[in-house]
Design a protein that fits this description.
The complex is a heterodimer of chains A (284) and B (298).
Chain A (H helix, E strand, L loop, with lengths): L3 E6 L4 E6 L16 H4 L8 E4 L7 E11 L16 E13 L7 E6 L2 E2 L4 E5 L5 E8 L3 E10 L7 E10 L11 E4 L4 E4 L4 E2 L14 E5 L3 E4 L2 E5 L5 E2 L40 E5 L3
Antiparallel strand pairs in A: 1-2, 2-3, 4-11, 5-10, 6-7, 6-11, 8-9, 9-10, 12-13, 13-14, 15-19, 16-17, 17-18
Chain B lengths: L4 E4 L5 E5 L2 E5 L5 E3 L13 E7 L4 E16 L2 E16 L2 E11 L6 E12 L20 E3 L1 E8 L2 E9 L4 E10 L14 E5 L12 E8 L9 E4 L5 E9 L37 E14 L2
Antiparallel strand pairs in B: 1-2, 2-3, 4-18, 5-18, 6-7, 6-15, 7-16, 7-17, 8-13, 9-10, 9-18, 11-12, 12-13, 14-15
């Protein structure tokens, strides 16, 4: 019968808590087949519960920044369109937080309980109006850029709260502490400095407030129009059903004689079922 | 239960706590990324991918329109006649997609968390329905990436890409392009593939009052699909005005000088050209990827 094993290897400096793949070999021999997850975390990933070689996503910064966005004024319909719809509507670019790390970190940014995929809608109005947010990061700051689509109705101004998680790159091995609990500081340290309980790591424990991370394709295109799937399963297809084109009946002077017949709706009409799932993560 | 320190009881989970905070528990969902040796691109040495979106499938639409206005001139009854012909490059409805395997993901990984940086060295060379086909996301910056990204959107046109681990365990790049359905086009004369509107006859100098009308014609055979009239410019247009006296013998028949249909017998002598097509709506993106594989247990 296999067991869950916590094991330390002083030769390699590895520390792991894992499910044995088999019962072959000496339980106390790090090189035994049953202890393969200790020496090779990548190949045995599904059996790992903890391993100092893995990046357990130490959180450098976590917080929330509220950004006010201006209203986007509704537009009139183009002469060839049966209703108004514009895709080059207003946008802005705002600081979320200065991260202070000496490299470009991995970041997750969420609106509500949804971790943003780039260009995910964060505010929706009527008749095609919506605001879309794309986080981006450089060596100094995490920022969010927004753009909008608009129909005949103004998209209201909005203050949107963006939660962020900025991750540190895992530290290189240093020192000689394989496993230590310091009763004076209460710190648990493992794996030659790779793990320390005075840091914060991403995970989800029962009773938390998780954020959804999309897995899979979150946008589908059809009929010249996009549709997006948010991590919580909600969807948004901006192109309104009323958007149709027609061939204008113009005179020589450009006057529209009217009476045109519009084509079919230009709204999304695809059959993609959306990404298979979303995963839940949580700030520490 | 709050643990301060390290707890690993036989048959139980490993719990690490500090100052009343659970730092790690194997009872929760494990969220972990693989070591850097398994990265797919780094900031300093990203994976580079070229995203090419082909030009759309195109034809043409032709709009001939006219107007005659009665004027009482010094030489008698006259008509100001005007004709105009405009060629519109039309984009046919169409869906296209492709999936490219970037690499095999390490076993049991279910997430790819990374960043992309993009630029568009080749942009569409003309407007689309009068609007620039802009790049929607910010360019030349690292964008935290999961799922998909809508690169371009105009009325009736959209382009997107996605990066994800597919059901076979491969990290894949999925590209998609879509062009919408066209305007309605009810051909009123299957002989010349046109849609007439306005007054029933052309500017032949016989109208006693102001009159106007026109017709739309399309490329291809009668009944063939038409496309969105996405582009028109001055080089694909003609405009003619002339004064006709009803009492001046020998005034040339100005009928349909700028008219054009797909039936060459009806092509006006001064019709606008329908070629060459000045548009190229292809886009080429340079995409850099730096990301990590990992596993978030469900």
């Amino acid at each position: 019968m296999t067991s869950s094993v916590f094991m330390v290897d002083p030769v390699t400096g590895k520390v792991a808590f894992f499910d044995e793949p088999n019962t072959v070999g000496d339980p106390f021999d790090p090189a035994a087949a049953r202890n393969a997850p200790l020496l090779d975390a990548v190949t045995n990933l599904i059996r790992e519960r903890f391993h100092v070689d893995l990046d357990h996503l130490e959180v450098a910064l976590a917080g929330t920044t509220t950004i006010p966005h201006l209203a986007v004024t509704g537009i009139a319909a183009d002469p060839k369109l049966a209703s108004a719809y514009g895709t080059n509507a207003g946008g802005d670019d705002n600081l979320v937080v200065n991260h202070g790390l000496p490299y470009v970190p991995i970041c997750l940014v969420a609106a509500g309980s949804n971790i943003l995929w780039p260009g995910m809608p964060v505010q929706t109005g009527v008749n095609g109006a919506a605001r879309y947010a794309t986080p981006y990061v450089d060596g100094t700051a995490l920022r969010v850029a927004t753009k909008a689509t608009i129909g005949d109705t103004t998209l209201a101004s909005a203050s949107i709260s963006y939660s962020y998680l900025i991750f540190k790159a895992p530290p290189a091995a240093s020192g000689d502490i394989l496993f230590q609990f310091d009763p004076d500081t209460g710190i648990v340290a493992m794996g030659l400095g790779k793990f320390s309980s005075d840091r914060a790591y991403l995970q989800v424990a029962a009773g938390g407030s998780p954020l959804g991370l999309s897995v899979g394709r979150t946008i589908d295109l059809n009929n010249g129009a996009p549709k997006g799937w948010n991590p919580d399963g909600t969807t948004f297809a901006p192109v309104p059903a009323a958007l149709k084109t027609y061939l204008p009946y113009l005179t020589y002077g450009g006057a529209d004689l009217g009476g045109e017949t519009s084509g079919a709706s230009m709204a999304y009409a695809g059959s993609y079922a959306g990404p298979p799932s979303s995963l839940q993560v949580q700030a520490p | 239960m709050t643990i301060n320190g390290f707890d690993l009881s036989p048959g139980a989970d490993m719990i690490i706590g500090k100052d009343g905070r659970t730092v790690f528990t194997s009872a929760g969902r494990m969220a972990t990324l693989l070591p850097s040796a398994n990265d797919f691109g780094t900031d300093a040495s990203p994976q580079s991918v070229t995203l090419t979106y082909a030009d759309v499938s195109k034809g043409w639409l032709y709009n001939w329109r006219w107007q005659s206005n009665y004027v009482a001139g010094s030489s008698g009854q006259q008509y100001n006649l005007g004709e105009r012909g405009d060629t519109f490059i039309s984009a046919f409805a169409g869906e296209s997609s492709s999936t490219t395997i970037l690499t095999a993901a390490p076993a049991d990984c279910n997430v790819f968390i990374g960043k992309v940086k993009l630029s568009r060295p080749t942009a569409p060379n003309k407007t689309w329905l009068g609007n620039t086909i802009a790049v929607k996301p910010p360019e030349n910056v690292w964008i935290p990436f999961n799922g998909s990204l809508l690169l371009e959107e105009q009325v009736g046109l959209a382009r997107a890409f996605s990066i994800y681990i597919d059901g076979s365990g491969n990290l894949v790049l999925h590209q998609q392009q879509s062009v919408s359905v066209p305007p309605a086009f009810s051909e009123t004369d299957t002989g010349d593939h046109t849609l007439y509107y306005g007054a029933s006859s052309g500017p032949d100098g016989t109208h006693s009052t102001t009159a106007s009308g026109g017709e739309w014609a399309h490329s291809g055979a009668s009944g063939a699909a038409i496309g969105l009239p996405v582009y028109n410019d001055a080089s694909l247009s003609v405009a003619k005005t002339y004064l006709v006296s009803l009492f001046t013998p020998g005034v040339g028949n100005p009928d349909n000088r700028c008219r054009r249909t797909t039936n060459s017998a009806f092509v006006g002598s001064q019709a606008a050209p329908v070629s060459p097509d000045p548009t190229n709506y292809s886009s080429v993106y340079s995409l850099q990827i730096a990301g990590k594989f990992g596993r978030i247990s469900s």
